[in-house]
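Tokens for chain A. Residues wanted.
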């Protein structure tokens, strides 16, 4: 048995646009609802949701049966957690709150086996089909997506150096936290946030670095993809459910008056 190619890793390396969705409802069943929709990728979140390793496993199993690549965001740049997520078979990781080149290097090292990194070795995991995947150790580092999330003005200022760390697959801008960092808490779509992000993103794109983000405005998401962003999440399962529930109730109340 050979290791399967990670389509998301290959696509962003080739500059192919990847449309994504945030997944934070922590439910296999909710993941089953999303999986047939046909998104190129989803972000299964551990940082701002009650996901644990067991719930992550169930969602990875759901998305593995679909063409959608499930990227996992651990709650922190923690080599022990990273090891466990990779052993579960996570095709890629989005590391939150990367603030320096050194933190970027730690993130990459956590995904690589010695002598190139610090990932612990297990011969029988879900990731290697419990020892059946004969080329796993030789190929996994080529296939694993390593995305680094920049969430402060200081991190954005170091974006080019962080992106240059060997093994980084792409840079993800977090507008909500960047907004908070510059005194605009709760205003991720403020023009001042994007005046900070876009010039740096353009430099990275020009240098061939895949760039991504999350925005809840579908028109703006499409515009970013047209500008050269490689991977953009255009919504979240939780926000879709909340807005849909609110809209349905408001519609019935309005129509029955």
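Reply:
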């Amino acid at each position: 048995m050979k290791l399967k190619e990670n389509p998301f890793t290959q696509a962003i390396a080739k500059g192919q646009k990847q449309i994504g969705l945030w997944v934070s409802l922590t439910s296999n069943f909710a993941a089953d609802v999303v999986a047939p929709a046909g998104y190129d990728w989803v972000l299964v979140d551990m940082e701002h949701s009650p996901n644990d390793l067991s719930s992550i496993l169930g969602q990875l199993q759901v998305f593995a049966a679909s063409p959608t690549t499930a990227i996992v965001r651990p709650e922190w740049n923690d080599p022990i957690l990273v090891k466990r997520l990779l052993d579960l078979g996570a095709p890629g990781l989005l590391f939150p709150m990367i603030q320096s080149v050194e933190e970027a290097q730690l993130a990459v090292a956590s995904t690589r086996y010695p002598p190139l990194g610090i990932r612990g070795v297990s011969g029988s995991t879900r990731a290697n089909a419990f020892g059946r995947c004969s080329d796993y150790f030789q190929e996994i580092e080529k296939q694993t997506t390593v995305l680094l999330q920049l969430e402060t003005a200081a991190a954005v200022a170091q974006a080019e150096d962080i992106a240059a760390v060997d093994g980084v697959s792409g840079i993800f801008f977090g507008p909500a936290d960047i907004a908070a960092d510059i005194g605009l808490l709760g205003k991720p779509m403020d023009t001042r946030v994007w005046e900070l992000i876009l010039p740096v993103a353009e430099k990275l794109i020009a240098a061939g670095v895949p760039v991504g983000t999350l925005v809840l405005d579908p028109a703006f998401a499409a515009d970013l993809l047209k500008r050269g962003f490689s991977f953009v999440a255009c919504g979240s399962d939780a926000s879709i459910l909340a807005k849909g529930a609110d809209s349905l109730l408001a519609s019935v109340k309005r129509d029955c008056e």
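The chain is about 45% helix and 15% strand. The radius of gyration is 18 Å.
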